Amino acid sequence: MHTATLSSKYQLSIPKGVRDLLNLQAGQQFTVLVKGKAIELVPMRSLREMRGILKGANTQNYRDREDRF
């Protein structure tokens, strides 16, 4: 398990093991999500990196606007 400490300037450093595992780069931006009393950091990806992520997705039973309440 990795830990981080909040500095007096309210900054966190991401441990090297996590940076290496997720291939994070300096200057990369994150989306910050609050879930109850937990904070989740989600790396923002460029459109180029997202290309093809939905390839082969099952479009059966897709809910269209007509199905909404």
Describe the structure.
The chain has 69 residues and is an alpha+beta fold. The protein has a domain at 1-46: Pemi-like Protein 1, Chain: D, CATH 2.10.260. It is built from 2 helices and 2 strands, in the order H-E-E-H. A two-stranded antiparallel sheet has the order 1-2. It is elongated, with a radius of gyration of 18 Å.
Comma- or semicolon-separated keywords:
alpha+beta; 2 helices; 69 residues; Pemi-like Protein 1, Chain: D; 2 strands
Structure summarized in a few sentences:
With 69 residues, the chain is of the alpha+beta class. The protein has helices at 16-22, 47-50, and strands spanning 30-35, 38-43.
What structural class do helix, strand and pairing data support? alpha+beta
- In round numbers, the mean pLDDT is 87
The helix/strand order is HEEH
Distance between the termini: 44 Å
Q: What gross morphology would you assign?
A: elongated
Strand content: 15-25%
CATH fold title of one domain: Pemi-like Protein 1, Chain: D
| Computed Rg | 18 Å
Query: Uncertain runs with pLDDT below 50, 5 residues or more?
Result: none
The largest sheet, given as strand count, sense and whether it forms a barrel, is: 2 strands, antiparallel
Assigned CATH architecture of one domain:
Ribbon
- Seen as an oligomer or otherwise, the chain set is single chain
SS elements, strand count: 2
Number of helices, where a helix is a run of at least 4 consecutive DSSP H or I residues: 2
CATH class of one domain: Mainly Beta
Strand order of the largest sheet: 1-2
* Helix fraction by DSSP (H/I, runs of at least 4): 10-25%
